[in-house]
Design brief:
- The chain folds into two domains: 5-240, Rossmann fold; 258-492, P-loop containing nucleotide triphosphate hydrolases (Rossmann fold, 3-Layer(aba) Sandwich), CATH 3.40.50.
- 34% of the residues lie in helices and 26% in strands.
- Strands 6-9-10-3-11-12 form a six-stranded mixed β-sheet, with helices on both faces. It has a six-stranded mixed β-sheet with strand order 18-21-22-15-23-24, sandwiched between helices. It has a four-stranded antiparallel β-sheet with strand order 2-1-4-5, with no helix packed on it.
- The protein is globular and about 70 Å long.
């Protein structure tokens, strides 16, 4: 029966050393409903889901599924209790087949052997349910698209007969057409009386898919209710603890003279003969569908990807295509893959900030640690990074604060041309507003910013001009006031 609670969380607490991640959190998940779990980075959302998935154990509090206590000792216990976790970074074995991934951890075997004949009908049914009826169970998972892998994760939950599915930023790497497909499947799961907890930083997305919401702030419940009864301003105010008058703050700045020229830039397979003229103090947005070549373009401009033709010049001077020369010319790059490329997760914040430019802190080859620390802490304060200390491992920071460290790194590098690939991906609305403010301030000082994003509202709100990419080509460049979301999409799908 829809609306009946199937999971209840009461007064859950969790600390990591002196840091209290959860301070008595309550949660209720009902059959056939989607509960949106909302909050800033560091609010405790991921910690709570890790407790529910068995990856962490709560320090105190109670959880029940139905009328039975729920105290998972690990992910295997969680699976057997009917709870499935789908992480933002997919948790599949890419070298194994679809069928093997769906059956990992399944106990439907006899004498220690998996009986595929018995399990295959269940596998096929699960694939049909998520719209993958035409996919062979023997296909290798790593050869499938990210969208297909996302659906395989959901199919695995169905094979495990999950009654509760936890989804952490499930659309972060999906193009719009696959987001619509995912939402359709979620609606089908609701009809099956499966309860879902859904984390997303996109309020319009949450509003489309969720029935109810719970807001966390600093590890505590600060609000809940029906999605249809709350406006965005109310939810954002609950998240950040203050009124946010403008989700897209802008800083007055006037783009100056042409400065950077990209001419006929070509790589393999993308970009294809791209021409751009960038101005000082300009925020230039690049829109387009996933796979259109946006990332390949700015990686080639920076020198990370090889160019087979074309050139990049600054102030009329051609710049060699090596990364070293591009950095010397003032280029800085922020990768969309924060975990694997953007930051060295095992190193400290101060190391991540300064290792790309240590010359200011060395004398006769000796590093002045005190001077380096003072400079790093001044920069951390400037970009408002929330951390315990500058020598803290960067992996311990929330996603939003990690992104601020990545931005601070290229500022420390004294970059004047900032190439940013999805710089607000995976961070909350409050932190996004801070990033937009920062970009405006940087543009006002004369820095040139190239801003790649799949989120059209932020491009339209923040950028001075927008170019749209399709199939590796830069199809159209206009002043932002001359674009609408519909027109951007029309050009993007050509």
């Amino acid at each position: 029966m829809r609306g009946q609670p199937i999971l209840e969380v009461n007064r859950i607490c969790k600390a990591f050393g002196p840091t209290k991640a959860l301070r008595g959190v309550d949660l209720k998940v009902r059959a056939g409903e989607v509960l949106a779990l909302i909050g800033e980075n560091g609010a405790g959302k991921s910690t709570l889901l890790k407790i529910l998935s068995g990856a962490h154990r709560a320090d105190s509090g109670q959880m029940t599924i139905g009328d039975r206590p729920f105290r998972p000792a690990g992910p295997s216990d969680t699976r057997q209790s009917g709870v499935a976790m789908i992480y933002q970074e997919l948790n599949l074995a890419p070298e194994l087949s679809v069928e093997d991934n769906l059956l990992l951890g399944d106990r439907g075997h006899g004498g220690g052997l998996l009986i595929r004949k018995r399990q295959r009908p269940k596998v096929r049914e699960a694939l049909e349910t998520v719209g993958l009826g035409g996919l062979s169970p023997t296909a290798i998972v790593g050869e499938q698209s990210i969208a297909t892998q996302q659906m395989i994760e959901i199919a695995r939950a169905l094979v495990a007969e999950a009654r509760i599915i936890l989804l952490d930023e499930p659309t972060s790497s999906l193009p719009q057409k696959d987001v619509a497909r995912l939402f359709s499947i979620i609606n089908d799961l609701k009809e099956r009386q499966i309860g879902m907890v859904y984390i997303s930083h996109f309020l319009e997305e949450v509003r489309e898919v969720a029935d109810r919401y719970t807001v966390l702030r600093d590890g505590e419940n600060v609000g809940e209710g029906k999605m249809e009864d709350a406006d965005d301003d109310t939810i954002v105010s609950l998240m950040v603890g203050r009124d946010v008058k403008n989700l897209f703050p802008t800083v007055p700045h006037i783009p100056g003279e042409p400065w950077v020229r990209v001419q006929e830039l070509t790589g393999f397979p993308y970009p294809k003969k791209v021409n751009i003229e960038l101005r000082r103090g300009e925020i230039f947005g690049i829109a387009g569908l996933v796979g259109a070549g946006r990332t390949e373009l700015i990686r080639t401009v920076f020198g990370l990807d090889h160019s087979s033709a074309g050139s990049v010049s600054v102030n009329g001077k051609p710049i060699p295509s090596t990364i070293r020369e591009r950095i010397k010319a003032g280029f800085g790059f922020i990768s969309e893959d924060r975990k694997n490329e953007g930051l060295a997760q095992d190193l400290s914040i101060i190391d991540n900030l300064t290792l790309s430019r240590l010359g200011d802190y060395t004398t006769m080859g000796v590093l002045n640690l005190k001077r380096r620390k003072q400079a790093a802490e001044k920069l951390l304060k400037r970009v408002q990074v929330k951390c315990k200390a500058s020598d803290q491992a960067v992996s311990e920071l929330s996603g939003g604060n990690q992104q601020k460290v990545a931005i601070a790194r290229i500022l420390h590098q004294q970059a004047d041309i900032l190439l940013m690939d999805e710089p607000t991906k995976g961070i909350d609305v409050g932190t996004k507003a801070e990033v937009y403010q920062m970009l405006g301030e940087l543009a006002a000082t004369g820095k040139t910013i190239v801003f790649v994003s799949s989120y059209l509202p932020e491009l339209l709100a923040v950028c001075d001009r927008i170019g749209v990419m399709s199939r590796g080509e830069l199809r159209d460049v206009r002043d932002t006031v001359d674009w609408t979301e519909e027109e951007v999409m029309r050009v993007a799908i050509v």
